[in-house]
Amino acid sequence: MFDFKILTKDSVTVAVDAVVYFRVFDPVISITNVEDAPKSTQLLAATSLRNVYVKNSCVFLFKFIFDLVLVRNLYKKFSQIVSPSLRLCR
Fold it and tell me: Are 87 and 79 in contact (CB under 8 A)?
């Protein structure tokens, strides 16, 4: 888990908390080619997240997050109504 502050496209400072989940596919390469794989993964995730925030305005980001929460809540309600055999992957 990591947290940092990012300046958006419209110069608004946003505090970001993030958790990164990753899986190592080839442990030999992970050990021999990367000095600190978890830290490298964290830095890559932070850079990717920062690039998204820098390219978008604060209003757009909050609308996007709101839409994600709305869709998630609608899916929860929908999955309670639909039979288990018809449910989508979560």
Answer: yes
